[in-house]
């Protein structure tokens, strides 16, 4: 987010479904790809179109080259990690089908991991304090909505439809982020976003 705008980050994250499809297909048991059928060809073409569209929107207008490159590399790394997480949830949910307990354990161990990393990186205790109601609201929103509720719904969807089903809704994030960034942060909407 430091190197790119929220709209650009969410645009790059549209490749999440492509990475998830590739990882799930590589595992074979999670996602079957039948190239000789229309459905299989549609999946492969959809993956290519998804990556191509995200690339066009991103390259059409962007910040200075160094920051853009670094920001894109971080975002692609995020997509790879998130795709791996979506795919790995399939066998985990088969072994441990209690989705709410699963979400609680994921959140707990994620919290422990983040606190350990933050303790080494951020040593200024003043930065650990909550300074405004806006910061408190942000923390609660991230904890309750984007982590607790979203992870629970995501686990339910993966259990019912597989990791690719969850990942294909990622492009909706771009539209919502662009609208919210425009409304709340005054981000400009560029014509490159309307190409596709």
Automatic annotation (TrEMBL):
Organism field: Platanthera guangdongensis
Query: What is this entry's stated membrane topology?
Result: Multi-pass membrane protein
Q: Please provide an example of a Pfam family that matches this protein in its UniProt record.
A: EamA
**Protein name per Swiss-Prot or TrEMBL:** WAT1-related protein
Kindly list the residue ranges recorded as spanning the membrane. Answer: 40-60, 66-88, 100-121, 136-157, 164-186
The family line of this record is:
Belongs to the drug/metabolite transporter (DMT) superfamily. Plant drug/metabolite exporter (P-DME) (TC 2.A.7.4) family.
Phylogenetic placement of the source organism: Eukaryota, Viridiplantae, Streptophyta, Embryophyta, Tracheophyta
Q: Which domain of life is it from?
A: Eukaryota
**Record-linked PANTHER family:** WAT1-RELATED PROTEIN
Q: Where does it localize?
A: Membrane
